[in-house]
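Q: Okay, next protein. This is non-specific serine/threonine protein kinase from Prunus mume. I've checked the sequence twice, so it should be correct. Can you predict the 3D structure?
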Amino acid sequence: MERYEIVKDIGTGNFGVARLVRDKFTKELFAVKFIERGQKIAEHVRREIMNHRSLKHPNIVRFKEVLLTPTHLAIVMEYAEGGELFERIHSAGRFSEDEARYFFQQLISGVSYCHSMHICHRDLKLENTLLDGSTAPRVKICDFGHSKSVLHSQPKSAVGTPAYIAPEVLSKSNYDGKISDVWSCGVTLYVMIVGSYPFEDPEEPINFKKTIERILNVHYSIPDFIRVSKECRHLLSLIFVANPEKRITIPEIESHPWFVKNLPIELMEKVGSWQCKDANNPSQSVEEVLSLIQQARNPSEEAPNAAGRPLMGSKSMDL
């Protein structure tokens, strides 16, 4: 970490602490996720790093490198100074349909690329959707802690955030992670337009059991006082389908009339065009990254919370 100087803490979770750092030579800002060495460096951490490392797309937070400190494994990545999309909606209450479409188009572009690389995210939500600091903000998908490569097997464990989770994740022993990602994208779109979660009981929004029941029964509605076009309602109805085999797919979303309206030119490019190596971000070799992860499994000899203040849990969970 000698190359970086710490600027401030920017977040905490059950993983550890995240900090904003500055490259001493280039002055570029990065976000660094510190994970305590030892038992916390489990298989899901290796999976998160290797999956994130393989993704290079303008709508995905850029992975830079992995470093090892005496007490922590440090994951260095792009800093999205615009903060969470959740915070933007929380401030606005809800978005206009055009603004929601602008962000949704970018979200789908990033998810489509992940799927083309055989990776399902499994925890897509507003808190894991960041924005850069530009005047026309660009969506940046982050946090691949629950992600899974589907090259060899389909997901089996029920993970994610309750308000966003698809019914088949709750009710099946294995499921198609790509199709469950579609459901989570639909929840994100709904929240942007309505300003509340589709499957929470309005009278008991924190009742987890009722939320699950409403998800399994696909019980949602759009309040009468919110004006939503027929095309948008149609798209949501194709996403919120209990049977994953009948749910709309990402490629089908990308050709839906509501989605293609005012589609930015850069999102019309083919997926393959994003897969070239970033010349300004030479990746560590797979062997080097795996070696650092393996070394991080050895506990440190120093105080366990040397990277920051006491840690707090996050909203994502194994269900």
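A: Here is a summary of the prediction. The mean pLDDT is 87. Residues 88 and 118 are 30 Å apart (CA to CA).
Q: Noted. On to the next one.
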